[in-house]
């Protein structure tokens, strides 16, 4: 029971007092909203054009356009994953996270000005939306995993999962009503606003040196067990000495 209390105290102390962890939990929750923004609200946004465009007259046309957007985005997203895998460890996290938040903020706000979902502009926005979100998820999870404290690693991972679920719940509770009352692009504008806020947060933390990878040489300290060596029995040592002396005499 004391161990649980100690872990809880350590967890609360790190999350509530360290700006880096506050940012990481909030940013990860925001970054993973792409799952719902793309699969749910993008489809609803496309459905809002049914009847107002010659190429979109039924929900079947919406599904076709959404499939095309996804197919166009796949090669670009795969290239982004490859580039992030090659260079993410050699680039400071702030130079990955802040530009990705800024790019996604601009792209999400751009959906407000899309008049034709079949235009190249609309396809570009949907592709860049996935690219920026991919950059965010990879860079944030890499920073999170490399800074996890060894003593509360499991508890921090569970807390991250909780924040992801909480972020999705809050987004749906706000995104649905504003979609109906303020227009189909309003969930994208909402994400754009918070992306801009987290971009500024990332720049501030990067400027004061908090968004960095943990020093593996200092953090990954492996404690040696107290009795890591084998203690020699005095009686066995005396017997071994006597045997050696007998062999020399013979």
Describe this structure in words.
The protein is mainly alpha-helical and 250 residues long. It has a single domain (2-245), classed as Growth Hormone, Chain: A. The protein contains 10 helices and no strands. It has helices at residues 2-17, 19-31, 34-47, 59-87, 94-110, 120-146, 153-182, 186-207, 216-219, 234-249. Helix 2 runs antiparallel to helix 6. The radius of gyration is 27 Å and the shape is elongated. The model is unreliable at 216-232 (pLDDT under 50).
List the helices and strands and how they pair.
Blueprint: H1 2-17, H2 19-31, H3 34-47, H4 59-87, H5 94-110, H6 120-146, H7 153-182, H8 186-207, H9 216-219, H10 234-249
Can you tag this structure with a few keywords?
single chain; 250 residues; mainly alpha; Growth Hormone, Chain: A
Rg value: 27 Å
CATH fold-level assignment: Growth Hormone, Chain: A
The CATH superfamily appears as: MFS general substrate transporter like domains
Number of domains: 1
**What would you call the shape?**
elongated
Find the count of extended strands (DSSP E, 2+ residues).
0
Tell me the CATH architecture: Up-down Bundle
Q: Tally the helices: what do you get?
A: 10
Structural class by helix and strand composition:
mainly alpha
What fraction, in percent, of the residue positions are helical?
over 70%
Mean pLDDT: 84
Calculate the terminal CA-CA distance, rounded to whole Å: 64 Å
CATH class equals Mainly Alpha
Q: Which parts are unreliable, with pLDDT below 50 for 5 consecutive residues or more?
A: 216-232
């Amino acid at each position: 029971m004391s161990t649980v209390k100690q872990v809880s105290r350590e967890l609360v102390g790190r999350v509530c007092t360290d700006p880096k962890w506050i940012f990481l939990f909030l940013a990860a929750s925001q970054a993973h909203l792409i799952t719902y923004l793309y699969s749910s609200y993008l489809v609803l946004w496309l459905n809002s054009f049914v009847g107002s465009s010659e190429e979109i007259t039924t929900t079947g046309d919406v599904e076709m356009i959404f499939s095309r957007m996804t197919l166009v985005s796949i090669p670009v997203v795969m290239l982004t994953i490859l580039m992030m895998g090659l260079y993410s460890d050699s680039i400071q996290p702030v130079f990955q996270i802040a530009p990705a938040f800024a790019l996604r903020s601009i792209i999400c706000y751009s959906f407000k000005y899309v008049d034709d979902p079949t235009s190249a502009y609309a396809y570009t926005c949907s592709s860049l939306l996935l690219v920026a979100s991919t950059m965010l998820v990879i860079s944030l999870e890499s920073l999170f995993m490399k800074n996890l404290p060894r003593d509360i690693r499991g508890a921090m991972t569970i807390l991250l999962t909780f924040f992801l679920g909480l972020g999705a719940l809050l987004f749906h509770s706000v995104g649905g009503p504003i979609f109906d009352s303020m227009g189909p692009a309003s969930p994208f504008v909402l994400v754009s606003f918070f992306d801009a806020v987290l971009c500024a947060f990332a720049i501030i933390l990067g400027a004061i040196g908090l968004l960095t990878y943990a020093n593996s040489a200092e953090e990954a300290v492996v404690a040696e067990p107290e009795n890591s060596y084998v203690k020699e029995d005095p009686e066995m040592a005396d017997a071994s000495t006597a045997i050696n002396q007998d062999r020399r005499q013979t």
